[in-house]
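Why do we care about 3D structure at all? Because function follows from shape, and shape follows, mostly, from sequence. That is the central idea of this module. The next example makes it concrete: a single protein chain, its amino acid sequence, and then its structure expressed as tokens.
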Amino acid sequence: MLRLIAVYVVAESAVLLAWTLVDPPIPKAIVTDISAQVTTFGCQQQSDVWWYVTMALKLAFLGFGTFLSIKNRNHAPVFNDSKSVGISTYVLFITMLIVGIIGIALLHYVVYVLFVKSLGI
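And the structure:
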């Protein structure tokens, strides 16, 4: 079990490191409220491909969790956690789906997007 967690951490770290090295973030000031003179600072990349790569990686691990819960359902009840793993995988998938849809809908409102993405973490 710890090996699977280590594989996930290494894979996620490798993707994030490659993202930072290949497409470094560019600091950008965005005026969010002209009347109150509120400026939000954020980072922007030249390409959105890396965001899709990280989401694909997370979906792959969700699929792997689903696979493990299906394989585990025929074991003795003492060792069978497929129901709890299945429920948590389902809840995580629904949360990612909702956060993704809201994030795309609010693409031009930087503060709201950051708030919604932080809810998805």
